[in-house]
Each structure stands twice: as structure tokens, then as C-alpha cells.
Amino acid sequence: MNPLLPTFEASRAAALQALARVSPQAYAVSRNHLLGAATALSPYFTHGLLTQREVFDFLHQRSPLHPQHKLVYEFGWRAYFRHVWAQLGDGILESLHPGPLPDAAYHPELPEDVRQARSGVPAIDQAVRCLYASGHLHNHARMWLASYLVHVRKVAWRVGADWLYGHLLDGDLASNHLSWQWVAGTGSHKPYLFNAENVARFAPPEWHSPGSVIDTSYEALDALAHTPEAIAPSPKGRPGGGLAEPPLRSTPPDVVPWPDTDLTGRPVWLQHPWALGPRPAEVPQDAVVLGLVLRDCHQRHPWSGRRWQFVLDGWRTQGTPCWCVDAAGLGRALAGAASVWLQDEPHLRPWRAALPPHTHWLPEVPLFAEVPGHQASFSRWWQRTRLL
Ligand SMILES: Cc1cc2nc3c(=O)[nH]c(=O)nc-3n(C[C@H](O)[C@H](O)[C@H](O)COP(=O)(O)OP(=O)(O)OC[C@H]3O[C@@H](n4cnc5c(N)ncnc54)[C@H](O)[C@@H]3O)c2cc1C
Fold this sequence. Notes:
Oligomer: single chain
Bound molecules: flavin-adenine dinucleotide
CATH class of the largest domain: Mainly Alpha
Strand content: 5-15%
Low-confidence stretches: none
């Protein structure tokens, strides 16, 4: 598989195959390289086809993993971002503290040349191409893209975060929006900066960007990050004819809708898009299974056709019908159900009150111990948590 253009299949079998390919030893050595041994497990985590707990247990059983192993540490980042989300809720969608410039200094729109992969900076244009072609990006490429947009082009981090979230198969509001804040310097103590030398070290030749705006020193980049003026796209990048951006949609395409049958007196398992995995043992065997698309959620955070297809495929292989409904309709249709079961999922929490009181929110089995109170930095959280 080309690590720059990985493919993902929305099934438990595909997730387990991907897990079997993971090599923690190779990961520790080469994870920062775009062609290195990153796991590409993230879409499976995001959509509930794998949990961190079972992945750790599987790898640890195969060959003992130290709690400080690089892979465990990276799992920690995901868990930490979820910790911050649990503490701050929608507060993660606003700057956590001031960055190098006031929020008002950044533009509210994403430049067309970046959207169309024609900024003229090869590292950025390659990243956008890979993103649209696969719905995935290596962590380093995400950091470069975010840093270029925020610190060079002066795009508001939230604008970039919403755009990237929509195109990623693993799009997760906590990992994505808080990573953008970490890069922007509104969620970390300094902006994340990178230059052409860094790209040359970690990316294949077609990404190298000599002679571009990023081919400069870290001192110059730091000064740029603290200057309100945006740098224009490279002259090489300006002409039209770039890539067409795949549209983001708030509802799935070509869906065969659930034929609203009466749920009165029946147990219901809501298999939402973040819970495509096996049905938990607690859910009654005779439960009606429905693939829930909560319209209100996706109107706020739309997805690419590729991501919708991933979710629809996940349901199709399990024979789960898709139920597109808004929060009010959801509450009405479930009011008479005998019981309602769903995996607890922070993406759905703003609409929790729409579900009837007899709803069972099943918690994810955690890998790390909960740390009480908001921990403002990853290192503080990491010192206080432990593997369970
Ligand atoms: C700007 C930006 C946006 C991001 N958006 C998302 C997102 O929407 N969803 C998402 O899951 N991750 C996001 N990340 C984190 C990270 O880039 C991806 O988790 C990782 O690239 C996924 O590929 P992988 O599974 O091969 O990761 P690996 O490097 O193999 O890591 C294994 C797992 O550890 C976790 N992980 C690793 N690094 C991070 C990290 N820095 N932050 C959080 N979790 C991490 C992921 O669950 C990942 O699957 C973002 C990072 C940045 C810089």
C-alpha cells in the first residue's frame, strides 16, 4: 500500500487486517517520515471499528509494549484531546488563549489556490492532492498544511480546521480542532513552524519546496508568524486550472432511507457513524438496528462524499438501514421505544437532550485513567494519567 494514498474499507475485517500490519518497533523509528511505518488506524478509531483498548491489548500480547512506547504516547494524544473536549465542550471550537496575533488578524476564508492545490508550494499542494485522493494525511503533512495556512497565509485556524475535518476520513473534532490550535499557538505556548529543510528530511522528492516561501530560517518564520501581513501565493501557483475541491455535504448521497416503521415497544440500537463496530453484548438481541444520521450535527460539520461513502459502506455490509433525521424527529420517533441503546460519542453530545430518558449511553472502554479537572497541557495530563 502507498502510505501517501492509503485505502480504507469500512469493515471490522479490514480494521483487524490493518491492525495485524502494525509494527510498533518500526513505528518508533520512522513514524515522522511520510513513507514511514505510521499505522493508518485512525479512520477505524474514529468510526468505532477499533478501540485503543483492544489495539493496545492485541499489540502488547504479541510483544510487550512499554507504557512510554512512542505508539502508546501517540494514543495518549488522542485520549488527551478527548479529555479536553469532555472538559470544555464546544469551547474547543474557539481559541483557548491568544496566539501570536489577535484572532481578528486572520482571514475568515480559505484561499482558492490552496483549496485547488495550486499554492505553488509543493509540500502544500501535494498534501491537498493526497487529502482529496484518499481522505487521509500523514501527521507531519497535517502539521505543515495547518502551519502554512495559519502563519504564512494568515487564515483563521478555525476555518482551516473546519475544511480539513470535512475531508478527512478520520475527522474528529477534538483531535482535529485542538491540533490546529496547537499549531496556531492558541492551544500551545508557541506557534508550530516548519521550513523547506524539514520537508526535505521527512517527505519524498516531489514534496520538496526549495525556493518557495518556506525555504527560509526559523527566525524568519517566527517573525512572519508575528506579522499580520499574509504572504501572497507563489507566482508559480497563481494561474487557474487546479484541482476541483470535492464538495462537503450535510447529508449522505444516494441514501436508501429507513421506511419509518413504528418503534413503539421495541428496543432500538442506534448504530451512529462513530460506532460502526460490533454490537455490544448489552444491547438486546431483538433490537431494531438503525444507522443514525443526525442532520443537526452534519449541518454544523459537513463531510466529503468519500467519508459518507465509508459510513454507508459500513452500514451496507452489516445490513443496517440509514435513518436521516433531525433532533426533534429523533425524539418523537423514539419516545415510545422500549429502550434505546447507543455508544456514547462526544460528537452527538450537544443533542443528548433530544434522546428519551430511557436511553442507555454505552461508554467506551478506556485505555488511560481519567484525570479530574481540565489539564491545560498534554505533558501535565500525561504525568497524571496511567495505563489501565
Ligand atoms: C492539523 C491536524 C489535524 C488532525 N486531525 C485529526 C483528526 O481529525 N482525527 C484524528 O484522529 N487525528 C487527527 N490528527 C492527529 C494525527 O495526525 C492523526 O491521528 C494521524 O495522522 C492518523 O494517522 P495514523 O493512524 O497513521 O497515525 P499514527 O501515527 O499511526 O498514530 C496511531 C494513532 O495514534 C493517534 N494519534 C497519533 N498522533 C496523534 C496526534 N498528534 N493527535 C491525536 N491522535 C494522534 C491516532 O489515533 C492514530 O491513529 C491531526 C493532526 C494535525 C496536526
